[in-house]
Amino acid sequence: MKKSGKWGRDRTLAHVLDVSQLGSELSFTKDGKIDISSVRSYLEAQLSVIRDPEECYISGSSHRDGVFINAAPFGKETVAMDSGSACGDIKFDMNFLHLESQTIFSSVRANACVWKGRWMYEATLGTAGIQQLGWATISCPFTNEEGVGDAADSYAYDGRRVRKWSKCHASYGQPWVVGDVIGCCLDLNKKQIIFYRNGICLGVAYDNIRGLEPREGYYPAISLSLGERCELNFGGRPFKYPVEGFASIQLPPIVQISDNKHGMILSSTRAKFLLGCLQRLVQLGSREVAAAMAPEDRLRRYSRLTGYDVLSLGSEICDFLLPLLLVSPRSDDLVLLENNLKVPGEYTIWCSLVPFLLETYRKEAPHDASSVDQALDILLPRLERHVPVGDFVTTIMEALAYGCRTSPFTLVDHPYTGPYPYLALACHLLERYDFMVSWWMSVGFDSCLEGLLTRKGPNKNDLEGLLPIVWWPGSREDLCSEGKMKHAATSLSKAIVKVEDLQWELCTRLLHFVPPPAADLSQPVPGVVFRRFLRNLVCKNRGANRSIAPAGLSDNSVLVSTYCVLLRLLSEGFGPGKMNGDFAEGMKEQDYSTSLLHRVGKRSFPVSIFLKDSGATDFARLGGTFSHLVKTFPVGLDVSEVEWEESCMDEGDNVVRHDGKLKPACCSDLTLSGLLSDSKTPVRAPSKLVAVSAAAGVSERAGSPISSNYTSGRSCDGCVEDKPSSSGRVDIGLGGAPVSRSYKRQGFKPMKELSESIREEELLDIMLLLYHLGLAQNFKQASFFMQHQMQSIAQLDETDRQIREEKMSSEYVKRLKEARTLYREDLIDCVRQCTWYRVTMFARWKLRGMYATCMWLVQLLLVLSKRDPLFSYVPEFYVETLMDSFHALRRSDPPFVSPSSLLQQGLSPLVTFLVTHFNDVRIANPDVRDILLQSISVLVQYKEHVIAFERSQAARECMAGSLLSSFDNRFWIPVSNILLRLCKGSGFGASKCLSHGESFSPHFQRLLKEKCMTDERLFASFLNRLFNTLNWTITEFSVAIKEMQEQSDLRQVPDLLQRKCTIMFELSCNLERILEFLTQELPYAFLRGPEINLLRLCEIIVFVLNHTTISADAHFFDSTVRQQGQSPEKINRAMILAPLVGIILNLRNATSTPNHVMAYDVATVLAGLDVSAAVIAKFQYLIDYSWEMAFKGDISISRISDLKQFVSKLKLESKAARKQTSSHDLLAMSSTSDLLGSLAMMDREEACTICYACEVDTIFFPCKHKSCQRCISRHLLNNQRCFFCNSTIIKFSPIQATPAVEDD
């Protein structure tokens, strides 16, 4: 038995030390114990015979024969960018490998060149704009406009424009995205240059390049536009995607393998062997390794070693490993040299140690945390003797962050893809308090944390790999499959959920981390580290939403990830985090109803966030800039916070509360999960809900308190996991191999102590800003692709219909099929983009959190609006984020809630805020008010939302008046859209769009009518602006028509001109419809009010008829106005003529009403404007127009008979007007038969010198000039100065009567 035990131990040691055959002469035990001397001898012997793989083998100096490295200033072994060669302002890091352009165009080359052999370097993209990466000779000129690829003997690849450059450009490669690793390969043996993207060859870019003399070779070179940045690797780190046969320009760390100076081996090769031994040692008792074994292999498992044996053997392995992991410090680092300390060898750690940790921890769940901890417990104490542990930890964390930035999601049969392996290991390592402290104290902590929060996005080619098969509604393609597409989308969704869970876990651990005392942190408290990171992130990305973004911004995915973390924290509460095995206990103690966004009852917000927060002073406030407000509206801190009840904004009996009978839309289905019940144990939802979520292709994040399908865990096949950790990590406290942890649990504080340093309201403020800076544009892009997808489907269907039609020429069918191919490819790309956005942004829990945020925010804004000074200090991005989030919810796909529930089930206060603030003078920026108006304009398109407006007391009281007063030069377009939609269905030819001919909103039509009748001054001002605006749009439309007619003769009609013509046409139609509504509801304002109203209305009618019924080409109007793809039902001549018919019929009907005496008659006024027979022809055109074809089924067409009666009357009035004009002409001819008569008439000054149509009857004061009342009344509508002398007119009076002062 003793011999058998000795043999079993030797067998185990042989496995650990990678002994291929264990002979009787080789034994690692002595007297029943491990013989350390035998182990040491064996390791020495093995290290002496290890060789590099054939493709990496280095033999002496032959590797350097084709390379020249300028020794200054980095030394003869280091390759970096030569700042002396830079043109433009480039920001370098301390190693001159991270570059960022600070000017419009910058260029720089490296300090090394090559002239023979096969070489490569890698460029990792920090941004995805215009960059030209490649090679250039020293003779290539660098200027502000020319860089790499713009001269002879320089070659570059630009993935933004998808081109290659060498004096001229040509299409090449794939579009790149942030995080791509571009391999730049130069094969001087074949005279070729090849580029790789993430290890995928893009093809030979250039061949037959010119050979150069020694030391006059090709330099790695790069050109960057403003704000672009990248990270270069010439061999100081292992390549992310090495290319076989191509060597790094910088030589990796090597060690001598014999006395021969030419016998060298990579340090990483020896380190990999030793780390392999260490891995096998620590995994001897690993449950995770055993679980992954086949059943027959488990029977042959090796016997376990004692803790002492593991420590002894591991120490011996580490003694050989340490010299390989450490290198001597630089000559200028005197502190390390004096203390005889070394620094971590970056190459060996990246190439050997980090892969060892990843492989030991396992890239897929379940993870082997105990083995990693055992290995670190053995290694770290020995490292502390030779190197500062902080530098070692920093190097590891930087490698993991780089892995997160550069690892794309792939389509595999498990969800552990993308940055998951690196992020999972980082989260586990940071459970060690010493690791967390060392990482936090490092110089690049913020940058490294951003890397861990990065999620690499795909380009067109990547999406094709993630979603190889697509489907869309109505698809008849043979290769389309709805089931396969949903399966791929669900797999991708699960992978993203895994990564988001780990990012949340990482940030939660930072929240609970208590740093040691420091110079700037005398009393450390939990949350301070995460708070500083958030503030630095916000400060760094202040201009991210500008049209021209400044340099130095974070990657957009960092903002998105941080936003999602904050959204989850505010939805679920801070929580204890999943650390130290206390997750399950924390779940039992946590009350989700106390989280900020779902808190029941009283709510509060500290106003100091607006008044004292220096980080937010750079952002504009509703009342203007912060510096201006401090001087104009100084606000003290006597009010520390504002308070309100959750449901205080609701009206009537429909009170929406989180704990009420009527719950908000974000929590209305929480009872299914049991999270709001008295029970502390979550209840599983019905499986049907899970199936619905999976079918949508958007996975619900389990563990969310607002999840309708809450479960205790997840797995990639839809089964419920027993483990409490959603990341798949195994709690080592449940058993397994013994482990001695070196970190302290007291370094992480519970939730109760968090409020001392950071408030939830402060996180909410930062979350809103992150949405404004990062997510708003993403949701707009998602909306664009979704709309474009619908348009593309319509185009494809229309093309298919045309192809199926008979009697088509073969040439025309050929062009249709070519167009169909383009439409199909565009649609497929669009479907993939929509699926990506749907999976990443429209997860159910995110939409619920966004809805709760909107509820919280609109209540806060309404409370603050009642406090004038405080409301002015509210940042503009609060309002912008509120509206952007709401519209993202409204456009979500699949829909978050039904349209009828969106406003009425929690967001009814939003209607109050919109109608009371779009005309609020306290909002200084008109763009913010425009956002509110545009939102109303969108909402009133839908009957469900109009009902919410009709139920709002604030809308009933002030909306009509505010709309009329807001109709000015800045807001007339959205106001006219709102008025048009509220009055929709009440005009001629406009009732067929509604069921049973009902008006769209009779309630608001009545309110508008009452407001115009009760406030005559407001109505007169609105009507004047309406006339002016309609005159302008019709004029611009007619000018555009003439320009297009001129261009059409040359068969060149610019798209911009055609678009302008269409827009002006639509705006004119809208304004005419508003006038039609006014004549229907308020005809007496034109027939019994000021004469100028009816006169200007008739002028508009004649003006429109002149430009739409008379044309050299009768068909030119329709052909020029209608854009390609525009619906004929929306753009045609009937749309602009129908309102005119409605206006005339409304006034005629009012005139014919008995018992109503009218001061003016529309036919009489029209006849007076144009006494020629042409006016009759224009109205006859209206009678003869084919209205039944234009408005088929519209009941208002029957009123055409009334138009015929009006035209008959108009003929009589025109005939009478012509007779009167003829008599006046005869009188004028007789009275001017001689010169004296003419002078006598001129001396009388009876004719107005402005219009020459009326007699002078009005005098102005104080200048005492004269004109007719019609001219001065129209003039004073828009100008208060005299026609003749430009002096200000105070009053005017009739000449004949006693002056009755009239003030304008």
Query: Which parts are unreliable, with pLDDT below 50 for 5 consecutive residues or more?
Result: 57-62, 576-592, 670-697, 702-744, 1231-1244, 1297-1304
Q: Please tell me what the overall shape is.
A: elongated
How many DSSP-defined strands? 27
Give the mean pLDDT: 81
Please give the radius of gyration in angstroms.
39 Å
Strand content: 5-15%
Q: Which class do the helix and strand fractions yield?
A: alpha+beta
- Terminal CA distance: 118 Å
Continuous helix count: 45
The biggest beta sheet, please? Answer: 8 strands, mixed
User: How much helicity do the residues have?
Assistant: 40-55%
Pfam family, one: zf-C3HC4_3
GO molecular function: ubiquitin protein ligase activity; ubiquitin-protein transferase activity; zinc ion binding
Catalytic activity: S-ubiquitinyl-[E2 ubiquitin-conjugating enzyme]-L-cysteine + [acceptor protein]-L-lysine = [E2 ubiquitin-conjugating enzyme]-L-cysteine + N(6)-ubiquitinyl-[acceptor protein]-L-lysine
Keywords: Metal-binding, Transferase, Ubl conjugation pathway, Zinc, Zinc-finger
What are the defining features of this structure?
single chain; 1304 residues; alpha+beta; six-stranded antiparallel sheet; 27 strands; disordered C terminus; metal-binding
